[in-house]
Design brief:
single chain; alpha/beta; Rossmann fold; 2 domains; 6-stranded parallel beta sheet; 6 strands
């Protein structure tokens, strides 16, 4: 059915336009960064190891190959990366089957982007099996495409996921806004040339050129995202 709501005019005073919005998943739209850490703690406890709380800042926001690899090396656990990845994914799936809390403002922002027909993509370092589970709750109709961490040769902090999303939507990444919650995700989006809104979930993120830091998604709406396009490099 064709929407009766006209697409929002995303032209800026300088004639540029917001072409698309890319959203991270864990810690940005869904309050699950803590879930991953809890699962990692549980899995390693069963392996006979205690994780240091300070390691949480090291593993947050990164691909599983990096975070799991770091924890194996840090603990000396007798497990392969492939075996650990299976256990972590299984543990996370069990967690989100019983609860999948959304971040404040997430539902409203997704509805607004959909209402005004803004091309939107979900871009995550999580594996496809996890993304599909979460999409069922977020509403797959809110996204024209999604990019998973196990679908790119190099995931975050490399620019590949966001470049792939831009190519899939046929847009210029420099005319796109990205919403991220970790330094790893921010680095990926900035390397792709996107304008970034950082909503820190675990570790602080400092403002920078083409990077705006807010405390909550409740501060972000389409007018706000459109305004990012006037920022200079």
């Amino acid at each position: 059915m064709t929407s009766t709501v006209p697409a929002l005019d995303t032209r800026t005073a300088e004639g540029s336009a917001l072409q698309a919005v890319f959203l991270d998943m864990d810690g940005t739209l869904v309050d699950t960064e803590g879930f991953w850490w809890d699962v990692e703690v549980d899995v390693f406890a069963r392996l006979g190891h205690t994780l240091d709380e300070s390691w949480r800042h090291v593993v947050v926001g990164g691909p599983m190959t990096r975070s799991a690899g770091f924890l194996i090396e840090a603990t000396g656990a007798d497990i392969t990366l492939a075996e650990l990845s299976v256990l972590l994914n299984q543990g996370f799936e069990e967690r989100i089957e019983t609860a999948l809390p959304l971040m404040p403002g997430a539902t409203r922002l997704l509805a607004e982007l959909a209402e005004h027909q803004v091309p939107t993509a979900l871009v995550s370092a999580s594996h496809r099996r996890i993304i599909d589970r979460v999409l069922a709750s977020l509403g797959p109709q809110h996204f024209r495409l999604s990019v998973a961490g196990d679908e790119v040769a190099r995931t975050k902090p490399h620019p590949d996921p966001y470049l792939l999303a831009a190519a899939g939507l046929g847009v210029d990444p420099t005319r796109c806004a990205v919403v991220e919650d970790t330094a790893t995700g921010v680095a990926s989006a900035e390397a792709a040339g996107c304008h970034v809104v950082a909503v820190p979930s675990v570790a602080p993120i400092a403002p920078a050129a083409r990077r705006t830091v807010v405390s909550s998604l409740e501060e972000v709406d389409l007018t706000f995202l459109r305004g990012l396009m006037t920022q200079k490099r």
